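Dear colleagues,

For the upcoming journal club I promised to circulate an example of a predicted protein-ligand complex. I picked one with acetoacetyl-coenzyme A because it came up in last month's discussion. The inputs are reproduced below in full, followed by the predicted structure.
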Amino acid sequence: MDGLLSKENLEWKYRVREIAEKFVRPVAAKYDRAQEYPWEIQKALAKEGIFKVWIPKEYGGAGGERILNLCITVEELARTCGGVGVLFAVNALGSFPIILGGTEAQKQKWLPKLAAGETLIAYCLSEKGSGSDAASMRCRARRDGDSFIIDGEKKWTTNGSAANLYTVFAVTDPKSKTRRMSGLLVEKGTPGFTFKKFEDKMGIRCVPVVESHFHACRVPAENLLGGEEGYGFRHAMGTLDQARPGVAAQALGLAQGALDYALVYTSRRKQFGQRVIDFQAVQHMLANMATKIEAARQLVYAAARAADKGLDNLTKLSAMCKLYATDVAMEVTTDAVQLFGGYGYMCDYPIEKYMRDAKITQIYEGTNQVQKIVISRALMKEATILQSMLDPYIPQEKQYVLDEGPVAPEAAAAFNVPAVRE
Ligand code: CAA
């Protein structure tokens, strides 16, 4: 399995695995229970240089296969704690708009600090009334001299309050159909920018998810992403293409982590005079879990490679890996709880947390229903290309209907019948 990764990818993977085992696993349950941001973990990850993985080399990043190494990192972190997986990955989500669409000055100003883990970032797209339908957002930003004034609310800001920088999408031209919104970089502490409603969550409890409120919040015009209005939706969507493999990797890590625990537990637990793992029904469950995880892993890595190579099919692959890996995570973590039996349902055992953490991966960064929209739109484009090639090979029978009035000339020719009924 690991043979499909390069030597560099593997070295990185084992390095992150060591870091995760040292700093994350021992305290994962504690921060989950307390629903508290694990600053000790964030600091350790920053010190180990992990935050530079997705940042281009010229801005202080690691270089190389940035998205593949990001996915490998998230996978290994989530294997020990799904919350820490997203605590890390959400910084990539927040910074992709700068990498994809920022001005040179914005890149120089922010990316090195993000790479060092000194600046943490969050992504503000969703609102109470616009989740899947991101384009229907209401948050406004109006140009006022050399600043923009933001008014509105953002919902589900993951990393909100912990982060010191926010990529905020707002409507700058309500009348425009194609260039309605823009991205703005907003620093924590800017007057008029506050956090409300710290959400109490089922899973990923160590990462804060908050509402971000903007009331006459003035930001300098130089913080307009890319320096030009109207590209917000494109930047937001392009960002999701890059970031969805990261969510898929979080799901993959959760599934693998749950399988790891299930293997150990079923090998230890004895019933009816033998180890639970010695029952064939259990072995078949484990085999199914492992096979699905491996299939998900290959799809995640393929999408990550497509992102690194800038391939045209990224949007589709990115949605596919998010859809598949997160569904696998939900199935595998649920099965792992089952394999733990009654103990699996208990909060002092590690496995129920995996199931709770997995659920959100099917929802955020585009619900899995949205992923199916994205995939099927790509398929419909492919259909038009395939049509001219394959149409001649598919027989097309025509039906002549007697009582339906005069026959159109082209239909008459096709059916070989008179154009005017006799
Ligand atoms: N890359 C670049 N541009 C893109 C694009 C992409 N992947 N997808 C669409 N666009 C462009 C289109 O080309 C189009 O541009 P023009 O107007 O110039 O032609 C424009 O964007 C509009 O595209 P659509 O007509 O496809 O837009 P739509 O309104 O039909 O929406 C959607 C499509 C796929 C449903 C989209 O709204 C979507 O992805 N929704 C889900 C949003 C989402 O994922 N939210 C999660 C928030 S982040 C989060 O969850 C963070 C967290 O907590 C961790």
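Two points we might discuss: The chain has three domains: 2-120, 122-231, 234-386. Residues 90, 93, 123, 125-126, 132-135, 156, 158, 178, 233-234, 237-238, 240-241, 315, 364-366, 370, 373-374 surround acetoacetyl-coenzyme A (CB under 6 Å).

See you all on Thursday,
B. R.
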